[in-house]
Structures are given as C-alpha cells and as structure tokens.
C-alpha cells in the first residue's frame, strides 16, 4: 500500500525534529545532503517532483560513504557512523513509497534519537527524547490509523506513556554490565585548568560557565573561606609561567586515617561526595587533606588527589575532609631549595623590596605580614581586564598598574616571599561555589577558577595565604560576581549570564542543580553496585531463579495493566450521560410549568410546548433533536469519534438553552 498524504506530512516533520538535536555534531556537508533530501521529499509531498531514480540514490549513497571514509580520522569513528546513519535515513526517506519503506525510516529515526545519549543524558534530554519518540511514531499512526493531526499526536503520546512502565522495569532489573569500551568525546578538550599558568590565564578561564563538579556534604557545608578546591601545585617559575610539578604518590596502597598528614584518628572528619564532570586531565579538585578509599583515585604527597585514569563520563566519588590540619613534616633541604627557586634575572624592584623586608623583619611571620600589608590597601584592585605588564610582569603589577586577577596576586606573592627567603608555592584550583536552595549542594563552575599561595613556616608548616582575599574579600565570601561589580558580565561570553547574580536566577539554577544531582545519582549512577543493593533490599539477594520470577511476574502485571487500559479506552460510549443531563434540563422546565408528562416522549413533549410555549419550544428544539440522535440513533458499532462529536454538540445546545432560560422571566403556563 502506498503512503497516504498525512503520513508523508508527518514524515517530513519527524525528520526535521530527529535531525535538529544532532546538527551541532554533524559537519556542514552532511547537513547539506540531508537538506537536499528533505527539500526533495517536500517536492514529492507537494506533487512537484517525482521519486528520484534508484541509480541516483545509489550514487549519492556511495559518494557519502567514500567521503566519510576520507574524513573519519578527523570526525572520529563514532561521529562518522552517526553521519552514515543520518545520510541513510535521509536517502531512504526520499525513496519511501510503501508501508514497509516507512517502517524502515521510522525505526532508523529511533536509532538516531538514541544517538543523542552518546553526548549527554540529563532530565531535559530525557524529556526531549520522549517528545521526539512521540513525533517519530506519528507517521506510522497516520498511515495505519488515519485521523485528525491532534488525535494522531494524542495516540502516539498514549502509546509511548504506556511503554514507560516496561522501560522502567527493564532499567531496574536488566543486569548492569560495565562498558566494554568508552567513547572519548572531542568536547573534553574544552576550557579547563592547565598544568602551567601565566598571569592572565585564569582570567580567560573565568569566562566559561561550564560546570566542573558538584559537592554534597554530610552535614553543613564548610564556610566560604574554607572552600578552596586544590587541583595543582605550581612550583617552578621561569619568569613568565608557573609550571606544576608532579608529586609522587603517597607511600602505601590507599590513604588511611592514622597516617595521613592532615590528621589522625582523633581528627574530626566530614564526609562529602563529588559528582565530577568529564575531564581529560588527571587532577581531582578537593579540599585540602581530603582522602578517598576509592581505587580510582591516587593520593599524592602534596595532599592532592588524581584520577588513575582520566574520566570520560560523569563520575561520583566519596571523600573525607579533616576540618583541622596537622603540622606537615619538616622540609628537606632539596625541597627548600626548590621552593625558593627564582629566575636568575628580572623583576629588580620586587627583589629589592623583598631584600629590604628580609633585613627589616628577621622573623618570618612578621616578614610575611609586611608582604601582605600593601594588598589590603588602595590602589590595588581586582579586575578581569588588567593592563599589559611589560617585560617584568611582577614589577609592572606591584609598582605600576596594581590591578589584576587572582593569578597576578598569587604570582606576585610567591615571587616576593621566595625572594624574602620564605618557601612558597602557587596552588591553582577553584574557590567557592554556588549553594542550592536546600543549602546542601554546592555547584562549582569554571568561572570559580582561582589561584592562591601556600607558604611554609617553621612553627606551623604549610599555611594558605590568599592575597586576593585581602584585595577583594567579596570574591571569597560571595563569589566572583560580587567582587567584579560592573565587570560581572565578563564572567561568560554568553549574554544571558549578565543576570547570573539576580535572586531569581540563583534560585532557579539552584533547583536545577538539585534535580541534575539527583538524576546523576539515581539514573546515571544506577550501576551494578546500586542494582545489587536494590535487589538485596527487596528480595534478600540476587539469584537466577529470583530474577526470572520477578521479571515474569512484572511482565504479567504490566500486560494485565495495559490490557485493562486498552479495554477501558475501547469501551462503548456512554449514552447515559445525555439522559442524566436531559433530565436535569426537564426539571428546570418543570419549575416553569412546562415539564414533561408521564409516558410522554421527547418529541411529543416538544410538540406540546410549541402549542403552549412557542418561545421555550424554539430554544429547546436543537437540544431535543441532539438528545434523540444520541439516545435512539446510536449503538456500540458506531464510530467512537462520531459519537463524541454528537455528545459535544449536545452539550453545546444544552448550554445555549440554559442561557436562554436565565434570560427569560418565569411565567405561569397558559391553558392547554
């Protein structure tokens, strides 16, 4: 059987809906071929062009395959396969003339809809997939069960919604297997921290609103001044850039509470969980001293955490954080020399100032306070648009321009501290985060990127010193938006982020973050361990016999439920409803002295009213005719849609009649 016109129209709409979400993962030439095929399909629908010859379709298909082979290396294997499926989808659509062809196109559309899960899967994407599945089902329904467009869409929605319980059951009971292979998305090369840092780098990073991770604490989250998420320690400076060293792994297989430098068995530990976004780099931002027993994580000597293998998908990790830190072991002579290293030349004014402070303040604590003192005074200011600094950037920043971002302040602090004889290092990571309305979930974005200083004092060990906090306290307590003031719009290249700091936007982002976190925990994070725990809680364990029994019982229940729903939907239309409504109308007529007599039928009653109450009869006539048609001229074999249309007309006439009664003044009945 050939395709009817409604099915062809729905096919055009569904093709457009299926392909649009994949457009930003598709090269222009693929989109061009798809657009050409879509236009051809429009011409067929309008009767302007004929179906293309098979030879032309084969030639286009062969050309597409050869082109994909040529660009596969640049696209990646998975992207090339998606493009191949997309082209097959477009070419098959323009030659479709029968039901079998339509079925192939629709099934291919389902595969393309599923391909969106390769890139991301969140609540918004889940809703989008359901809507696209509904849209992709409409061509089949329009072909096999022709009806009005609204009814076709409604039928498709009912079908998809009826399948969701089965999908949920399969999600929970089908064994969760570890992936045999993973796809490394090219998107992972986007903006992020680097293992080297120049003075202006973090200012550029802070123009990204990409999520880095979310943190959830068992108990109240730490105060803003403690939310320093350490990722890298940068020690070597060549006069232009700071370079991160790679500290060796901590001795021992996994960290334990008794020997970790940040505390011991009596240290108050706070548990928290990170939900980390994909990242091609190995470092794991964490609060200082955090530990994890997860085998995916390596603990490093500088109290840093690294992934054993970079994560290419969203990953949850459980950690412990000590609210107090123990003193670090003494520095070795080699470490001291490394932490005092400076270029042989350059920055003469900064070196001279450091030498002066060293002579003036023999005590390291007093010397450190003297270095920090100018940062809390004008004219130092915090800005994302610092001026060019020249060949001696530290001198230019400290003595000429005195305006910069966190990397400027941290770099200058480390340089002067080292020149003054105090071992120091730069730490980069993230500071702060955005709390959800519940106060338990903290979202950290790329614009929270930060750099600060750690100095080593003989009496106390490593101490965090953040000159940015002295220059712009609001940056630490309230976030970069508050510190930047009129420059807050520079935090992202996206125009909509100019309203990030408003109360309503913060509230909405907070609730969305909470929803996204729960989705990641219970949908994306529903792995084999959670599934086994679920089986253990429900059935006391998992066995083959229990699994088969549960699946069969659930399938039977679902089948019975869907059968009951189908029978309910296919029930014959109720004619009792018009009877009840018509009797209510007759009661109102009875109060006017124009009621129906015992044994009198509707038409006989109407004829009697025409003799004694012509105005009432004229108003009642359409309602009476609609009632007679519904009550006496329909049966269970009539089309359900026609019956519903008659019932709709009956209700309409009833409303009009009641309005006419309200406008009429009651009058006693005349003699008959």
UniProtKB/TrEMBL annotation:
It comes from the Bacteria. The chain crosses the membrane at residues 29-47, 59-90, 102-118, 125-144, 156-174, 544-568. Residues 398-469 form the Transglutaminase-like domain. Residues 241-263 are annotated as: Disordered. Pfam families: DUF4129 (PF13559), TgpA_N (PF11992), Transglut_core (PF01841). Keywords: Membrane, Transmembrane, Transmembrane helix. The keyword Endoplasmic reticulum does not apply. This is DUF3488 and transglutaminase-like domain-containing protein. It comes from Ferrimonas gelatinilytica.
